[in-house]
């Protein structure tokens, strides 16, 4: 028996090593696993972003890496083809948002902030500040960071449906590395972002695992964890939000959104503020926009923009008309974020607002 085990081990271990190495090569060359920059928590700014000068790479999406986007993390820790400077020699536009503005799904020079920069012909600096997981409350935190460091003349907030519930600490007590709003007894308190020591930034084990293309392919391309959670969950989602939770917390959502819009107005007097409100893409594709369960958010944002004197670009009707005419999707079949066509479309819509 001992001899059998020794012989088995002598064959099995080398075989497993060879298979592992072959798969590593396969998921780097044939079907390249996605590559992501490392995130860092800026303790001085109380802000989670990417590690400055974080290099370049290619993010891939789909089980065959069908969609690809080349990223570049600049000197300030943001995905952009240009470095940022505190000094200004022209008016400056700052675009703030979540993963839609982070824009790993297209090459960094094809995101809509980059397209704005190109189309405006050097008349404006256009800086983008997007990070996955950011919610409406974190946009307020980001705007303060942007104002302190880059003094923009125009602020563009890219708002999505999931931004509202994720802003409320009592509903979403997990994303403590970003600013949230605690709402108790009708009063609103801002939480102070703090490092999450379970993140890759603080874990040698996770940094080591991320070097493996196999691990990145299974966790990021196939999204195994999300798939398992989806199978176990009975929740109904629309526009990336759980509808029943929205219905339960409508009052909190309105309170949180009102607070953020009030603070933005107070802290940005003299600046032009534009809110780009998302559209229910899948309802548009299905021809059921009028029955969409998330248009409550569009109406809420329209009301708040009117109350606070912000310009509103609601993408719902423009996207609906464009899809009815061109039948071109704004996202790829492998991911819900905007594809190149989506970014081009949004860029054209923003430019239509007029910039001298």
Helix/strand layout:
Elements (H helix, E strand, L loop, with lengths): L1 H28 L9 E4 L4 E4 L4 E7 L5 E7 L18 E6 L1 H4 L9 H8 L5 E6 L5 H15 L3 E6 L21 E4 L2 E4 L13 H7 L2 H9 L2 H9 L4 E2 L2 E2 H6 L1 H18 L4 E6 L3 H6 L8 H14 L2 E4 L1 H11 L13 H12 L5
Parallel strand pairs: 5-6, 5-7, 7-12, 12-13
Antiparallel strand pairs: 1-2, 3-4, 8-9, 10-11
Helix pairs in contact: 3-13, 4-9, 9-11
What would your notes on this structure say?
Helices cover 41% and strands 17% of the residues. With 356 residues, the protein is of the alpha/beta class. The protein has a single domain, classed as 3-Layer(aba) Sandwich (Rossmann fold). Strands 6-5-7-12-13 form a five-stranded parallel sheet, sandwiched between helices. It has a two-stranded antiparallel sheet with strand order 1-2. The protein has a two-stranded antiparallel ribbon with strand order 3-4. The mean pLDDT is 93.
**How far do the termini sit from each other?**
83 Å
Q: What is the topology, as strand order, of the major beta sheet?
A: 6-5-7-12-13
* CATH topology (fold) name: Rossmann fold
CATH class call:
Alpha Beta
Percent strand:
15-25%
Point out poorly predicted stretches.
none
Sequence of secondary-structure elements: HEEEEEHHEHEEEHHHEEHHEHHEHH
CATH architecture: 3-Layer(aba) Sandwich
Gyration radius from CA atoms, angstroms: 22 Å
Shape: globular
Number of domains: 1
CATH superfamily: SGNH hydrolase
Note the main sheet: 5 strands, parallel
Helix content: 40-55%
Total beta strand runs: 13
Q: How many H/I helices?
A: 13
User: Residue-averaged pLDDT, rounded?
Assistant: 93
């Amino acid at each position: 028996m001992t001899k059998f085990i020794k012989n088995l081990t002598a064959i099995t271990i080398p075989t497993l090593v060879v298979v592992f190495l072959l798969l590593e090569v396969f998921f780097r060359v044939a079907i390249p696993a996605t590559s992501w920059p490392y995130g860092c928590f800026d303790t001085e700014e109380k802000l989670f972003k990417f590690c400055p000068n974080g290099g370049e790479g290619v993010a891939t999406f789909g089980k065959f890496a069908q969609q690809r986007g080349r990223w570049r993390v600049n000197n300030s820790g943001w995905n952009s083809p240009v470095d940022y400077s505190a000094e200004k020699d022209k008016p400056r536009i700052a675009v703030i948002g979540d993963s839609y503005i982070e824009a790993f799904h297209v090459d960094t020079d094809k995101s809509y902030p980059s397209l704005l920069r190109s189309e405006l012909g050097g008349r404006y600096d256009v800086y983008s500040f997007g990070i996955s997981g950011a919610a409406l409350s974190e946009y307020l935190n980001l705007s303060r960071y942007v104002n302190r460091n880059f003094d923009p003349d125009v602020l563009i907030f890219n708002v999505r449906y999931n931004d509202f519930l994720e802003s409320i600490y009592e509903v979403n007590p997990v994303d403590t590395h970003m600013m949230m709003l605690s709402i108790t007894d009708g009063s609103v308190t801002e939480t102070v972002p703090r490092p999450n020591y379970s993140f890759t930034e603080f874990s040698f084990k996770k940094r080591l695992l991320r070097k493996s293309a196999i691990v990145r392919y299974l966790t990021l391309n196939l999204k195994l964890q999300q798939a398992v959670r989806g199978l176990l969950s009975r929740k109904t989602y629309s526009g990336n939000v759980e509808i029943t939770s929205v219905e339960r917390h409508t009052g909190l959502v309105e309170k949180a959104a009102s607070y953020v819009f009030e603070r933005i107005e107070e802290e940005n007097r003299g600046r032009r503020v534009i809110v780009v409100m998302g559209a229910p893409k899948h309802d548009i594709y299905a021809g059921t926009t009028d029955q969409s369960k998330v248009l409550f958010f569009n109406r809420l944002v329209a009301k708040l923009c009117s109350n606070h004197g912000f310009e509103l670009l609601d993408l719902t009707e423009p996207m609906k008309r464009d899809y009815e005419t061109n039948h071109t999707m704004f996202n790829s079949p492998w991911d819900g974020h905007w594809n190149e066509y989506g970014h081009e479309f949004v860029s054209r819509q923003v430019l239509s607002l007029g910039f001298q």
